[in-house]
Structure prediction request, 350 residues.
Amino acid sequence: MSKQPRKPRIVKLKEKQTDSSSAKNRIQQGKTARKPKAHTDMSVVIRQNEEMIDQLEVPPSHPVKTGFSWGKLFLGALAGLVSLGIWLAIDQLIRDLFERQTWLGWSAVAFAVLLGLALFGILLREIWGISRLNTIAGIRNKAMAVQSGERPGGGENVVKELESIYFSRADLANSRAGFADDRGAIFDNDDLIILFEKKYMAPLDETAKKLVMQSAKRVSVVTAISPRAIVDIVYVLMENTRLIRRISNLYGGKPGALGFWKLTRNVLGHLAVTGTIAAGDSLIQQLVGHGIAARLSAKLGEGIVNGLLTARIGLAAIDQARPLEFKSLPRPGISEFFTELSRSVSNSGN
Prediction:
């Protein structure tokens, strides 16, 4: 005899407490869930992205080789032709004024003389500025040759050339006194250059790092709060230009317009040749994407990016303007600016 099929019935299972129900119970019990909170501890950001920050470091500069250039010849010839054309136009103007009124002609002659004197003064300043930059670059190359053993016995001459640059600096009076006290105990040429670096370059390096930090902070804050991209571009360009000039003046370069153009070209050329620009942009994007933009707003992250770019240009300018290579003193790195930039931008965004 076959068994009767079992009739269907409802089986009530014991309901498991879900996350939503448990949260509801906690709310009912007066224990609310923790609100989501962005993590803005920049020390954690640095530890998590330490390797990427290290890759942003600007490599040390190498000796600058100067020589014949077709571009320089072209620009020099073009400048000469333009100058001749301008002077011929002035000469014709003076002749025309003499034909009209004698006093107008003599007035034009007086203005032409003043123009010539001003032009002569500007040329002297530019020649002196370029010569000063070349002198510093030459001293750097000589010091590197002495320290590498290529020019034994040349340390004394290098130090004399360096002292001729800084002997009248009032802000280095303590450095001169300290160097004079310890100089008698140094007999090795390499050690003499190292002593000069410790006594003279240490205070200048500290001031240079402060200048880089201040410029990077200003760029970061302005970029973070400015409403227009064109404002960012103009301000970053102006700030980087001023930073390069101030660093050059600090180390004794004091370039004019042409000298400043040459120095800026060397700074950007150094970043381009070493691949720091291309590699740095990619790494900064990763750094901001992984470490900052995920914790701060996109605008604040953009401010930190521009600040880091300014700091990298400042570090490259220090390498180009400094008369000695970093040997006994630590070379400043991009990681020294990251924490302070993050803090200043975060405060400006609050």
Remarks:
- The radius of gyration is 32 Å.
- DSSP finds 13 helices and no strands in the chain.
- The first helix runs from residue 19 to 28.
- The chain has a mean pLDDT of 76.
